[in-house]
Write a structure and sequence with these properties.
Structural class: mainly alpha
Number of strands: 2
Radius of gyration: 38 Å
Low-confidence stretches: 159-164
Strand content: under 5%
Mean pLDDT: 81
Order of helices and strands: HHHEE
Shape: rod-shaped
Largest sheet: 2 strands, antiparallel
Length: 164
């Protein structure tokens, strides 16, 4: 009795099509769940390399944004301290001008002005010694930041008179 093998070509073709559809569906679900078009090297090696480069650049940019926000916080704190020092300096100038008005200022008023000036100078020193962000002092000169001593407007030592 002869042996014969019968093939069901349409069933084999349908089975192959179902397997291909299942692989395509699994890839589509993976892309949908991750939100990425390229998840594996088989999705496109060049696209995967570009995707990874963009992902690393994105992480660097996000860190840069956080660094900028932190720098802005540091500057805000320093600005607050400098604003208060500026207010104290304006008060010192007012007191000095008042003390220099020798026509109507008595020695008691000059002594009171001097005491208030000393208090203002102490406040300026306290602000500069205590203004800090995290554990870093911002205004006490510990960072070694120096500014030029140029005085283009001639504001330093103009009409300086010592008040005792």
């Amino acid at each position: 009795m002869p042996l014969s093998i019968h093939n069901n070509i349409s069933a084999l073709s349908a089975h192959r099509s179902v397997g291909l559809s299942q692989r395509n569906m699994a890839n589509a679900l993976q892309r949908l769940s991750s939100g990425l078009k390229v998840n594996q090297a088989q999705d496109g090696p060049a696209a995967l390399i570009i995707s990874e480069l963009l992902r690393s650049q994105s992480g660097g940019i996000e860190q840069s944004i956080r660094n900028t926000q932190e720098a802005n916080n540091v500057l805000s704190i320093a600005e607050g301290g400098l604003s208060e020092i500026s207010n104290q300096l304006a008060s010192l100038r007012e007191l000095a001008v008042h003390a220099l008005n020798s026509g109507i200022t008595s020695s008691g008023q000059v002594s009171a002005d001097q005491a208030e000036m000393n208090a203002n100078l102490g406040t300026i020193g306290r602000i500069s010694d205590t203004t800090k962000y995290s554990d870093q002092f911002l205004l006490n000169g510990a960072k070694g930041i120096t500014f030029g001593t140029q005085d283009p407007a001639g504001l330093i030592n103009r009409g300086a008179t010592q008040v005792n």
